[in-house]
């Protein structure tokens, strides 16, 4: 099949470009590895045996397809469009992250790699990486900012239970971006045997496209399920955006459906009027180059990267996947923002009305449901990606509510 | 200016010795001390100077240079300040080439063309951008060409025969061979493994080949100086800056002197 000119799904080009974004900005030592990965992934993608093996694990190990659930009470509450939740929080390990990890694990195995490294912020990608490496019996090292290790002790323990080694990173501000720097340093040092399992749709080509492809199962299922349930496509799809892997997975299968509106929600932290107390790279940042790709970044006047802040550790990243930068610039997707306080409110609302405790990340998307549902109107239908469950966040939320647990 | 680099390498070759390239981080530990060190480098034996542009996320650096970048940024050093330092240096030294080494984002942020122009005016001779592989280099290379600056390319142990022509394309001044797969200042370079790469890179590029990453002692520096056109030492000096509280400048420069002497004496029978 030849891609249509200007077809959104035709991106990236052979050099990993989504318009001006993306690319491969890595040290020369890594360049041959990135090119090798590009070739290996292209082969695997085209191999029916690889796809069948992946489908098998997604069905029997991850628990796919995840349900598309009509959220009746949220719909009533907002009084607008019908709201459906794509239940990614029901996946094994409780979030969408494992879709990508399973895909990359099978690829690493196919490439003959014998050691896996990963970076993690909140620990969700770390747990998913530790899970698939346990399943396949491959040693796994997870880099995690020392500050995050302290904030996310339950996930550190989970990773240890699964047999992964968690290495606290003390350089820089000791959070997610520094963990990613440290993982790159490990990769550059252990080029022969090591596979770098990146957790989001960012990094050097082919990662943004590959992670998107592995996560696109979210949008593909949603499309099929809503056609079965409603006999039509949704009027809008909504997802939270940090690095943006659940969002691009949800959005991508709908990109060429011109009537489907696409909304990403960035973390506005303590507010966009603060210098570095938010994590809204598209809304509050500008294009730059970091972690192997050109994309929107939070940075100072000199191009030094800012830390960013969000109550949700999974959105607390100063960059964003390059495809989102592209969709933002061409206007195909619209990116809204949500503050810490709005996310907390939505966290409680979803828990009480639907009996689903959402991850704080997903709560950012939920917080904008009212706005989108009313905008679409009563006759419309919306699908929102509920990317993860909120059990991991109960300590953070209790803390903000002034409660001790 | 490309000429300054070419002249310096030609002069060293005429003396049948490897050039000695010293790396320090601009603004580390503070502007005044850093400028003093920079001005003292030629007399201490540095033939070429690599001046680090501080960046918040230096992905290819070991802990030593990471901390140096943090000290520099914490002291308020930024890209314009680095160019200011070079301008100061040039008031007294018109001959020692200065190469800026760092990461792409601050330069991209400055604007490639504006940066090329400002750097050339300040007296910079070339640029090494760690996270800019040849595949992404054209826009920067165009701007540097227009400004008369060299874009110095890195080659590594993972650069195979097929990739060598890609790596040497549009590079001038010299080629920087990263002698170990890893970050700066951690693993040790081995001259027997380095020699064949140097020969191949020299043939592919027609340029002098400098070898760096993992050279800390006079013995290693001398060993590499026997097979390469230049020896680069960085982390060893930055370590002194990081661990010394008094007389930082003289401590660093005396370390430079020791390593420079080892390089100069390496090929004397």
Explained architecture:
The complex is a heterodimer of chains A (405) and B (269). Chain A is an alpha/beta fold and 405 residues long. Chain A has 17 helices and 14 strands. Chain A has a six-stranded mixed β-sheet, with helices on both faces. In chain A, strand 11 and strand 12 form a beta hairpin. In chain A, helix 2 (48-62) crosses helix 4 (97-110), helix 9 (207-215) crosses helix 11 and helix 14 packs across helix 15. Chain A is globular and about 55 Å long. Chain A starts with 16 loop residues before the first strand and ends in a 5-residue tail after the last helix. Chain B is an alpha/beta fold and 269 residues long. Helix content of chain B is 50%, strand content 14%. Chain B is built from twelve helices and nine strands. Chain B has a nine-stranded parallel β-sheet with strand order 5-4-3-2-1-9-8-7-6. Chain B starts with a helix and ends with a helix. At the A-B interface, strand 2, helix 1, helix 8, strand 11 and strand 12 of A face helix 3, helix 5 and strand 6 of B.
What attributes does this structure have?
heterodimer, A: 405 residues, alpha/beta, 6-stranded mixed β-sheet, 4-stranded antiparallel β-sheet, 17 helices, 14 strands, 19% strand, globular, B: 269 residues, TIM Barrel, 9-stranded parallel β-sheet, 12 helices, 50% helix, 14% strand
Radius of gyration of chain A: 19 Å
Structural class of chain A: alpha/beta
Principal-axis shape of chain A = globular
Gap between N and C termini of chain A, in Å?
A: 56 Å
Report the strand count of chain B: 9
Portion of residues in beta strands of chain A equals 15-25%
Low-confidence stretches of chain B at least 5 residues in length (pLDDT < 50)? none
Widest beta sheet: strand line-up of chain A: 3-4-14-9-10-13
- What's the alpha carbon Rg of chain B, rounded to whole Å? 17 Å
Number of domains of chain B: 1
Low-confidence parts of chain A: none
Topology:
The complex is a heterodimer of chains A (405) and B (269).
Chain A: E1 17-18, E2 21-25, H1 31-45, H2 48-62, E3 68-70, H3 72-78, E4 82-87, H4 97-110, E5 115-120, H5 124-136, E6 140-145, H6 146-151, H7 153-161, E7 165-169, H8 176-189, E8 194-197, H9 207-215, H10 217-230, E9 236-241, H11 245-251, E10 261-269, H12 281-284, E11 286-290, E12 292-297, H13 322-330, E13 334-339, H14 340-354, H15 360-367, H16 369-376, E14 381-386, H17 394-400
Parallel strand pairs in A: 4-14, 5-6, 5-8, 6-7, 9-10, 9-14, 10-13
Antiparallel strand pairs in A: 1-2, 2-12, 3-4, 11-12
Helix pairs in contact in A: 2-4, 4-5, 4-9, 5-7, 9-11, 10-11, 14-15
Chain B: H1 2-14, E1 19-25, H2 31-44, E2 48-52, H3 63-74, H4 79-90, E3 98-102, H5 104-110, H6 112-122, E4 126-129, H7 138-147, E5 150-151, E6 154-155, H8 164-168, E7 175-178, H9 191-205, E8 209-212, H10 218-225, E9 230-233, H11 235-243, H12 248-265
Parallel strand pairs in B: 1-2, 1-9, 2-3, 3-4, 4-5, 6-7, 7-8, 8-9
Helix pairs in contact in B: 2-12, 3-11, 4-6, 5-6, 6-7, 10-12, 11-12
């Amino acid at each position: 099949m030849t891609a249509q000119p200007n077809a959104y799904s035709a991106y990236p080009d052979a050099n990993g470009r989504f318009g001006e974004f993306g690319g491969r900005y890595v040290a020369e030592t890594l360049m041959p590895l990135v090119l090798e990965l590009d070739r290996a992934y292209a082969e695997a993608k085209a191999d029916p045996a690889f796809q069948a093996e992946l489908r098998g694990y997604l069905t029997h190990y991850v628990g796919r397809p995840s349900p598309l659930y009509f959220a009746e009470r949220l719909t009533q509450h907002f009084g607008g469009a019908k709201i459906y939740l794509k239940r990614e929080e029901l996946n094994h390990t409780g979030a969408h992250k494992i879709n990508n990890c399973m895909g990359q694990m099978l690829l690493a195995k196919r490439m003959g790699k014998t050691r896996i490294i990963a970076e993690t912020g909140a620990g969700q990608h770390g747990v998913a990486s530790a899970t698939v490496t346990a399943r396949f019996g491959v040693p796994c090292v997870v880099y995690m900012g020392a500050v995050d290790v302290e904030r996310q002790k339950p996930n550190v323990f989970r990773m240890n239970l699964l047999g992964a080694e968690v290495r606290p990173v003390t350089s820089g501000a000791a959070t997610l971006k520094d963990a990613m720097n440290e993982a790159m340093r490990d990769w550059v040092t252990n080029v022969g045997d090591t596979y770098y399992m990146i957790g989001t749709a960012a990094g050097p080509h082919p990662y943004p496209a590959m992670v998107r492809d592995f996560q696109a199962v979210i949008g593909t299922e949603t499309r099929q399920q809503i056609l079965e349930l409603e006999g039509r496509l949704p009027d809008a799809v909504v997802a939270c955006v940090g690095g943006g892997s659940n969002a691009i997975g949800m959005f991508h299968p709908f990109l060429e459906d011109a009537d489907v509106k696409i909304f990403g929600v960035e973390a506005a932290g303590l507010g966009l009027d603060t210098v570095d107390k938010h994590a809204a790279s598209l809304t509050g940042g500008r294009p730059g180059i970091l972690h192997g790709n050109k994309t929107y970044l939070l940075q100072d006047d000199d191009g030094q990267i800012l830390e960013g802040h969000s109550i949700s550790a999974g959105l607390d990243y100063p960059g964003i996947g390059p495809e989102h930068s592209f969709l933002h610039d061409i206007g195909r997707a619209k990116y809204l923002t949500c503050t810490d306080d709005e996310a907390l409110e939505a966290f409680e609302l979803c828990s009480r009305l639907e009996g689903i405790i959402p991850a704080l990340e997903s709560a950012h998307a939920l917080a904008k449901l009212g706005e989108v549902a009313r905008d679409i109107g009563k006759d419309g239908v919306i699908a929102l990606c509920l990317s993860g469950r909120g059990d991991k966040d109960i300590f953070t939320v209790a803390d903000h509510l002034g409660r001790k647990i | 200016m490309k000429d300054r680099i070419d002249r310096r390498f030609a002069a060293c070759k005429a003396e049948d010795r490897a050039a000695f390239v010293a790396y320090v981080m601009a603004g580390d530990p503070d502007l005044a001390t850093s400028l003093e060190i920079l001005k003292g480098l030629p007399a201490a034996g540095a033939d070429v100077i690599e001046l680090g542009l501080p960046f918040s996320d230096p992905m290819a650096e070991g802990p030593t240079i990471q901390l140096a970048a943090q000290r520099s940024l914490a002291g308020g050093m930024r890209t314009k300040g680095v160019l200011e330092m070079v301008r100061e240096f040039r008031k007294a030294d018109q001959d020692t080439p200065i190469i800026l080494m760092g990461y792409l984002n601050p330069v991209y942020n400055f604007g490639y063309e504006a940066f090329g122009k400002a750097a050339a005016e300040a007296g910079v001779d070339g640029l090494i951008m760690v996270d800019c592989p040849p595949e992404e280099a054209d826009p920067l290379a165009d701007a540097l060409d227009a400004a008369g600056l060299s874009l110095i390319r890195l080659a590594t142990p993972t650069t195979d025969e097929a990739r060598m022509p890609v790596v040497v394309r549009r590079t001038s001044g010299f080629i920087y061979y990263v002698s170990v797969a890893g970050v700066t200042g951690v693993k040790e370079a081995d001259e027997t493994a380095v020699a064949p790469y140097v020969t191949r890179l020299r043939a592919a590029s027609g340029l002098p080949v400098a070898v760096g990453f993992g050279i800390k002692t006079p013995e290693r520096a001398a060993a590499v100086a026997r097979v390469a056109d230049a020896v680069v030492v960085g982390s060893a000096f930055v370590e002194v800056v990081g661990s010394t509280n008094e007389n930082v400048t003289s401590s660093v420069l005396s370390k430079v002197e020791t390593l420079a002497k080892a390089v100069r004496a390496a090929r004397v029978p």
